[in-house]
């Protein structure tokens, strides 16, 4: 239904649907200008589609329903993709969670693996998160999107003074000057990787229609995109429930402690997760949601490096 420039869609699922948990991985920090959780329980996000930008507001209307309001030139295209975005293609057949995640599995019964289908939108923030503290990457993402993104169509969530933004297109990412990468706190290596990805964006976007292994192999052909980065993209853009973020600084220790009561390295983490393929990432998400099995900290936190001061 279209009224006053708003396309309204009521999506009903045959399964429980938790919009916040399903779409949550698409946000990058509490101040992400492309993603917002409102006080009324709705979730807002923006995206840049083939037909143009779109703003989406997801308002839960029951355990199986969500009302989605869409604004912008990309509204109809986004409406057609809603079932995939909301994880209707996510197949839990044969999935039995580990005992340590049973409670989280019950509490998060409405969590699905989202598939945004937007590769570059998932790839740029993943590159920014390489080898740095998460808070630093989130700050860089916000700075760059606020400076180079475009104002989002439609209204802004209540209380969001600066409004929402739509991510820059591929051409814009290639034109960010070196001094603005520096001002955002992004080192030259990551900046060059973003530019390389943007230059071949059409080829990378094709990966969303490929088999998981083939899709990740295409991403990893870009210099600077490794297995960790391709996994982060696969989880968000492809809805890959089996993509494990190998190479993560904290994840192996957390998974090892949760499943075996001791820290693990990447190889040990993969051994522990092997029985749960093709749902290894789903298990990781449930363990992180549970939060009861965190490895004890070894010493003080690392100081947050600020590349802008270097």
TrEMBL record:
Q: Does the keyword DNA damage apply?
A: yes
Q: Which InterPro entries match?
A: Alkylbase_DNA_Glycosylase/TA (IPR051912), DNA_glycosylase (IPR011257)
Q: Name one GO molecular function term.
A: alkylated DNA binding
Q: Output the Gene Ontology cellular-component terms.
A: cytoplasm; protein-DNA complex
Q: Which residues cross the membrane?
A: none
| Keywords from the UniProt entry | DNA damage, DNA repair
Q: Which GO terms describe its biological process?
A: base-excision repair, AP site formation; DNA alkylation repair
Work out whether the entry's keyword set contains DNA damage: yes
Domain of life per record:
Bacteria
Q: Which lineage? A: Bacteria, Bacillati, Actinomycetota, Actinomycetes, Micrococcales
Protein name per Swiss-Prot or TrEMBL: 3-methyladenine DNA glycosylase/8-oxoguanine DNA glycosylase
